[in-house]
Amino acid sequence: MMILKVNGHHHQIDADPDTPLLYVLRNDLELNAAKFGCGLGQCGSCTVIVDGKAVLSCVTPLLLLEGKQVTTLEGLGSIEAPAPIQRAFMEEQAAQCGYCIAGMMMRAQALLQKNPKPSDEQIRAELEPHLCRCGTHMRILRAVHRAAHLMQTTDASTVRRSAQ
Amino acid sequence: MTKSRIIVSVLAALLIGGAVSAFAIAWRPAIAAIEPPAPLSFDLVLVKRGRDLAAIGNCNDCHTVSGGKDFAGGLPVPTPFGTIYSSNITPDAETGIGRWTEAAFRRAMGSGVNRDGQHLYPTFPYDHFTNVTDEDDRALYAYLMTRQPVHAAARANQLSFPLDRRFVIAGWKVLFLRRGTYHPDSTKSAEWNRGAYLVEGLAHCGACHTPRNALGAERASAQFAGGDVDNWHAYAINAQSPSPVPWDADALFAYLRDGWHPDHGVARGPMAQVVSNLSSVPESDIRAIATYMVGVFGAPTPDRKRRGEEVLAQVKSPPVLASKTNAAGAAIYAAACAVCHETDRALPYGGVNLALSTAVSSPDARNVANLVLSGVGAVEGERSPIMPGFASSMNDDQIAALLNYLRSRFSNQPAWTGVEKEIEDARRTQTVFLQTSPGPRNAPADAMQREKP
Fold it and tell me: Is the complex ipTM more than 0.85?
């Protein structure tokens, strides 16, 4: 039994300490934004934010997460009140099948928290570990730039929601 | 660098500098500039041979920065004496070698002097290139002079007095530049001799794999005993090799050619660019290098041989071990690492069993720390092994526990000391030097911050 902090809530988790975070998020907490892609940390679709940094939840066992803050896409915004990163991806229609997009958004979010105005090159380098088979890469790039712009222009109420 | 080392090197440099200026042996004439020769004036067969030779020499690694133009220079090379920037070796007339004659190029390769007559710093490994034949220099010249000229002025080196004075290097050369360190040996095969010529010359393996003395010269008495490059340890590649399974010629050939071998793992870190370059040169040259290097490794002692066989057997049927002393490290390994490093997926896409890892059996933890933190990034345009980095998900204590566990479970070597410090260093230089420049075709991409000193 351990306490896992996800999206600002404390959860009692009854799982082996070697259980990957992804399984706990999806199976125990029913937070299904993070996707199972390869299970080997090679595709990026399971990416979430831990203490402000993008991590691959499929290769991050629970035992590494004691005392840390986990943020998933659900923690950034909702359908009714999407966060800037979510709005930007919708407005740019950056998803085709969408399987990789939640992970992309999380790493982009972590990038924008650290670097509010990244260059094209920096975004490409940062999202390099993420695979997308549909090929919406150019839209994804535009969406990250749009999100950067939205974050600078939207009011503090949305900013406050962003991951810690 | 320690204070005493600084004092010793400064004193020595002053002394040397004084002596050489007195005897005026530092002076070298300029070689008259020429109009850049037309690319079509070079024989295409010669250019092609030059291409292969440049790949063996790994020239693009130092002479190209991340995202930069091929061979345009500007890469900072950190040394204990300061930072030295690589030069532009494209045929640009103003900032490159466009106005150099072949003789000027040959002089730079053979004795480390530029066209103007200035001494070059030995970060340019002319202590090896002096062994390159005139014929091969001609091919390299033909290749470089037919590349795209790039206008890119040299960046100023960051060296303090007196090392910022180039004549001081003349003294260094008196002490350390030995011509003809390669001699053909008629009692050995042609292949061995070819390998010796390449290894001691153009391939300059010792530049990374041989430790250096206080004045930055390779220690002749410790050839191939392991050196430092960036924040990595370049393993000993002689009888002191820490590789759990002794190398043989076939394994070396495959490793240098393909970048990996099932009994040894994958070549990453600064070696990634080397094997990337070697993947495209004539197979016979790689065979020759392997043949020569196997002689340098020497026949394994019966003990090492037995240990190698034990490790291979153990990898096939790993015993289930629970660590009582380092439960934290064992748990992290089981949860985060074993999923790839103990599977049936074959190399290079599955992880190597860490009992075979040279990094885990190496004298220090630097390379493992680098790998755990930064992982192994995908290489653009190449099929390549990848590993996720754990810098964002593990703290230093967790990584230390993991490293100590790996050492005790997967090697028969004594525990590492100073693991915490090495993790700190690795975190600081994280990703900076993990991969090398994008360089010409076939080179690992994403050097990210390599252009930063």
Answer: yes
